[in-house]
Amino acid sequence: MVWRQIDFAKYSSIKIGPKIEVAVIEEQDEFPSGKILIGGANNLLISNNPPPLMILGKSFDFIEIKDDSLIAGCAVKTGRLLSFAKKHNIANFEFIAKLPGTVGGMVAMNAGVKEYEVFNIIQEVKLGNRWVKKEEIEYGYRFAKLDGIATKVKFKLEYGYNEKLKNELLALRNNQPKEPSAGSFFKNPPGDYAGRLIEAVGLKGKRVGNMGFSEIHANFLVNYGNGTFEEAIELVTKAKELVLQKFGIELQNEVQIL
Ligand SMILES: Cc1cc2nc3c(=O)[nH]c(=O)nc-3n(C[C@H](O)[C@H](O)[C@H](O)COP(=O)(O)OP(=O)(O)OC[C@H]3O[C@@H](n4cnc5c(N)ncnc54)[C@H](O)[C@@H]3O)c2cc1C
Predict the structure, then answer these.
(1) Rounded to whole angstroms, what are the CA distances from 214 to 45, 92, 170, 219, 231?
(2) Is residue 146 lining ligand 1, measured as CB closer than 6 Å?
(3) Fewest 10 Å CB contacts: which of 26, 73, 119, 126?
């Protein structure tokens, strides 16, 4: 096992976090206990003192076609997977355009856009050293209960890459702020939108220090430059309090806080 120094103020999409040593795990390694595996940190808010972390190394960064499946290692970035799908005329990966992350992070979050979710196209997930069928995994809106670390994923293989669909889904991102963020901060409560609720309690555009709920899309907590973990938490706590008071709804974080 080797170590890599990661500066989370650069590595994470929201540009917050300390510079720390993270274990890099390769295929021949045992998974150490007591460490949390992360991917590209596009859905994370890392505190000043996070738990011990690990990432997957190069041996998990591969894509191959085998029989009726596309197999990808969990360190593969979504951008690379989409390029592969386009190059080989493979269908169903169009929704991952501009959905930043790794295959592992996508599976753990059941990432998606509208009705397109990664679990729609999964056949099996390798958890540690064991292949597990999708039917045996509990998953739902932005969660998957993985009994272990996802190392590889078997996707169903269908041909017919759809550039038009990709462009339609990309157009939905026009109202996404350009500043660093971790994507939507809260999950949408059933039948409602977290962004609408945050706006309704007057927090759209609200800033604390250099962090703020975007003026463009209230469910994006954005970093205007050198924003801190404490500023982020103050805003998140305020939003939860006010939404609970006014609507009786408990907002759930989509972003994982470590
Ligand atoms: C601008 C922007 C737009 C976004 N748009 C969308 C969107 O449209 N739809 C959407 O669903 N998400 C969206 N996101 C959130 C993010 O892109 C996804 O959640 C993505 O799947 C995170 O991947 P990651 O590799 O960065 O995971 P990380 O953020 O590193 O980790 C996320 C979680 O997954 C766990 N995890 C990571 N890898 C593994 C693994 N191999 N095995 C087990 N657990 C693992 C981590 O422990 C953590 O709990 C957006 C984010 C940004 C910044």
Answers:
(1) 17, 31, 19, 7, 14
(2) yes
(3) 26
> What integer pLDDT is reported at residue 28 of this predicted model?
93
- Closest approach atom of ligand 1 to CA 56: 41
Mention every residue, 6+ apart, whose C-beta is less than 8 A from residue 171. Answer: none
Domain that holds residue 29: 2-59
| CATH code of 235's domain | 3.90.78.10
Picking from 24, 42, 59, the residue at the C-terminal end of a domain is 59
Pocket test for ligand 1, best of 6, 98, 99 (most atoms within 8 A of CB): 99
Ligand 1 neighbour 183 (Cβ under 6 A): yes
Measured between its terminal Cα atoms, the distance across the chain in Å is 22
Single residue among 41, 59, 77 that ends a domain in this structure: 59
- Sequence length of the chain is 258
Please write the tens of the pLDDT for every residue from 79-132: 999 999 999 999 999 999 999 999 999 999 999 999 999 999 999 999 988 999
Share of the chain above pLDDT 70, in %: 100
